[in-house]
Amino acid sequence: MKVLLKIGIMAWAAFLSAHANPYVYLDELTLELDRATLYNGAPVEILSQESETSKVKIKGFASKDEPNTLYATPNMKVVLAQTKEPLHVNENSSASLEIEIQTSLLEEDIESVWGTSMDEFYNTCTQCHAANEPHLHTMLEWDGLYGSMKEFSKPTPEQDELILRFLRSFSSDGFVKFDY
Amino acid sequence: MSLSRRGFIKTTLLGSAAAATTTASATELFSPVKKVPHASHFGAFYAHVQDGKIIDIVPHESDHNPGALTKALLDRNYSNTRIKYPYVRKSYLEGKKDHAKLRGNDTFVRVSWDEVAKLVAEKIKTTPMENIYNATYSGWSHSGAVHSCPSLCGKFFNTVKGGAVGTYGEYSNGAAGPTNPGIVGDMEVYSLQTAHEQILENTEVYVMWGADLFKTNKIDYSVANRKNDQYYHKYKQSNIKFISIDPIRTETAKMFDAQWIQIRPNTDVALMLGMMHHLYTTNQYDKDFVETHTDGFDKFLPYLLGKSDNTPKTPEWAAAITNVSADLIKSLADTFVKNKTFLAGNWAMQRAQYGEQPDWGLITLAAMIGQVGTPGGGFGFSMHYSGGGQAAAGKRTPPGFAQGRNKVRTSIPASRISDALLNPGKEIDFKGNKITYPKIDLMYIAGCNIVGHHPDTNRLIEALKTLDTFIVQEPWWTPTAKMGDIILPASTTLERNDIAYGGSYSGDYIYAMKKAVDNPYEAMGDYDIFARLAKEFGEKEYKRFTDGKSELEHIQDFYSKSDGPSVKSFEAFWESGFVKFEIPKSAYAFVRHGDFRKDPVANKLSTESGKIQIFSQKYADYGYTHFKGHVTWFEPDEYLGSPKTKEYPLHVLSPHPTYRLHSQLDNVWIRHAYKVANREPVRINPKDAQKYGIANGDIVEVFNERGSLLAGAVVTEDMMEGVIAIEEGAWYCPEDPAKAKSRCNSGHVNVLTASRPSSQMAQATTSNTVLAGIRKASGSLLHNQAYSLPKLQHA
């Protein structure tokens, strides 16, 4: 009975894993395409997929003041994409972008997608103290906490951007839910 | 002028020789004195070494007011309290079933490094990471980056085990640290402060709200430079009016002839509210600033005016709580609002029950005064810390070891450790969430003295006795080491190489902490101890922990990641012992919150509204009984206005020590200059002394329901009536370690402090919310054994 239960759980986990939405996985922070600049870690929904390319939908939020920027959450703090054409912004600020992307740039494994940013955070912010796990704070709290502490570690502008983007994305009100 | 490497060394050597010629004594003819550069939390210096022994400590040029604290490092290095060899507690080593009961009252058996490393590794291997508590806390043990105990301990557990339970937050700012970001978008307590130049040029009234600038700036979280003392000369000569709101007339208050406002401890929020009420009802508050730079004043007003709770927070209301007269409250508020006023907050008032409130109160008061972000006005919470107010060089200083990722997501709020050890599985509120205490079986602590800094020592000792294994890595037999099961002897910083920077804010020096002498015993560097232990887990773990580098290679690596190489090559830095950065002129013009004041839209704060949250909906939504959406006065369980004063009539404060860094340096000769009968002094007002029949120099017993201690009375007008002060950090010494709640013979104040949390919000320490009684000690008293060795068995 126990064995059957275990197999059942494994099968369900495999099913979920197989159907987890992937993320845009880039070597750099951004990738410029014809219609938009995509940001590493943007979550996508696959609409159709070929071996070379995939048509994906990136759901997020935008404001009418800034219709060319798609953010991950309604507080407009983590950019997912910047578009050449203005996005259609709904009344509730939701917006989405459909775009073709190389299939090889899609990845489900969160640690692969965010590995560089994670390393920057843990390398930079554990030199004086143990790191607070990102999910323990909201984005706003991280802005304040990280802002208070970075004067001591003096990250480069590139490190700064990666760390803050990681903290916001993995925060309690962020869009990446990650189980260690 | 450029110098080749060879030329440089030659020149340096010639310089040294020239110096030696002018200062050499006859003994130096045959045994030259080496001057080895080094650095510490007490300042940078040269260790003078002769015949393999340190004979003197001579301050470095960057120490602007060197004193006895640095000199005392010599005595500490050769202290009788050194741990010379690895030890294991006897009943633990023998595997006795009830061994934990003997913790703190047992013999230690000397073992070899091989034996102890295997024992530690075996214990760690067989204990799940969720049941291991890495209790190594903060970085106060020393200034070095390579041998940094918290970084190494974190890296070690993350490398060999995947992680361990850690500590959330801290004792210093446990309440304000997590709360302030929601109010003002920044912790504030560690942030760069308005430069002294701006204060000197613009400030008319400087309020030291519990801040003892001179005393606490003697030390630094990195390397002290005591440059603030130079500024204090200028402060003294300026026309600034100083006001000290404090139950203690501090050295700083006396130095600046400050007006002393004697306030009952723990009632600062009531005083602030009384001032705010006066400013509002006399229409003096800055409406424009409140309108443009704050959020939620309208939701705070009904509380201030008493419309929401039928208690207007008038100066008269505040006077009854604070012991500060209503007229004085009004006059202070008038003074603040009519002059360029700087409010220098402190950390002590938030180490109290409902400690989330005082900073919020001071920020709200400052917002109503309307000078936030102006040169010389507004507030600051770090003028008393690590050279607060000094201009910053803005250079990259050497980093430390990255600890890596900890797979254990549970951490225990700093003040809750006893509670967690005693109540595994208990759920507590914390910042709008819930935390469940883990079950801890193994605790590892390196370079910090939890028995010294954790409140309610007797409860902590009870909690430590629930552990299966307690590993302590230390250079000295501290009270914590005496409670350990496995003792790993660490070398002092003077016995190994390291690198540091200073000061914390100025960041204008990088220091070589060069090894001055060999360790004469079997102590090892903290880095080497963890590397040795990592080896027990396998070659792969050893390589991951060490990154395949030696101590010196790590130092070089850290140096290369700083801006040091833009000034000196590593070789030149290591040879000379320091790198100095120039501080840009613009840094002397820094005004905290200056950008926000100029343009609150472009430079919005990281808060709900982008402005100062006088009211926070997020905090209100937590729904806590003792943490609301705006600053609120809550009556503490213990203070001079509580019924408990019938039993325990005196409020006990435990300020930062004058001659120590927490418990550091309690084991050196300096204590003979200030201790009374070899016990920590308790300062008491003459009227109180008379009331309790106590004379200056008497040994007294201070007691409450949590514990009791012996201290030496110092009768002084510098204490407010009804308040006594025992500086924290005296080494704990129970008269009978076998007995629960045994009286401390050394004056360790944490036997009196409570482990109650600040509130459901921050769960922070409340060590300044304490009532106690006092009486002259009677009967025959034992000798204070705090600095004696435990029973040692050398097999």
Walk me through this protein's architecture.
The complex is a heterodimer of chains A (180) and B (795). In chain A, 34% of the residues lie in helices and 26% in strands. By secondary structure, chain A is of the alpha+beta class. Chain A folds into two domains: 83 residues, no CATH class; 61 residues, no CATH class. Chain B has 795 residues and is α/β, with parallel strands linked by helices. Chain B has four domains: 31 residues; 230 residues, Rossmann fold (3-Layer(aba) Sandwich), CATH 3.40.50.740; 250 residues, Dimethylsulfoxide Reductase, domain 2; 160 residues, Barwin-like endoglucanases. The chains are: A alpha+beta (180), B alpha/beta (795). At the A-B interface, α2 and α3 of A face α5, β7 and α6 of B.
Report the strand count of chain B.
Answer: 30
Helix content of chain A: 25-40%
Calculate the terminal CA-CA distance of chain A, rounded to whole Å: 29 Å
**CATH architecture annotation of the largest domain in chain B:** 3-Layer(aba) Sandwich
Proportion of beta-strand residues of chain A: 25-35%
Envelope shape of chain A: globular
Q: According to CATH, what is the topology of the largest domain in chain B?
A: Dimethylsulfoxide Reductase, domain 2
Provide the gyration radius of chain B in Å.
26 Å
Characteristics:
A: 180 residues, 2 domains, 7-stranded antiparallel sheet, two-stranded antiparallel ribbon, 4 helices, 9 strands, 34% helix, globular, B: 795 residues, Dimethylsulfoxide Reductase, domain 2, 6-stranded mixed sheet
Layout: helices, strands, pairs:
The complex is a heterodimer of chains A (180) and B (795).
Chain A: H1 2-18, E1 23-24, E2 30-32, E3 36-39, E4 45-49, E5 53-63, E6 66-71, E7 79-83, E8 94-102, E9 106-107, H2 110-125, H3 139-153, H4 157-170
Antiparallel strand pairs in A: 1-9, 2-3, 3-7, 4-5, 5-6, 5-8, 6-7
Chain B: H1 5-23, E1 34-40, E2 43-50, E3 53-59, H2 68-77, E4 87-89, H3 90-93, E5 108-110, H4 113-126, E6 132-134, H5 149-160, E7 166-168, H6 176-184, H7 196-202, E8 205-209, H8 213-216, H9 228-237, E9 241-245, H10 251-255, E10 259-261, H11 268-281, H12 287-293, E11 294-295, H13 297-304, H14 315-322, H15 326-338, E12 341-344, H16 357-369, E13 378-380, E14 411-413, H17 417-422, E15 427-430, E16 433-436, E17 442-446, H18 450-453, H19 457-464, E18 469-474, H20 479-482, E19 486-489, E20 498-502, E21 509-513, H21 526-535, H22 539-546, H23 551-560, H24 570-576, E22 578-580, H25 594-598, E23 612-613, H26 617-621, E24 650-653, H27 671-674, E25 681-684, H28 686-691, E26 699-704, E27 707-715, E28 723-725, E29 771-776, E30 792-793
Parallel strand pairs in B: 5-30, 6-17, 7-14, 8-9, 8-12, 9-10, 11-23, 12-13, 17-18, 18-19, 24-28, 25-27
Antiparallel strand pairs in B: 1-2, 2-3, 4-5, 4-19, 15-16, 20-21, 21-22, 24-29, 26-27, 26-29
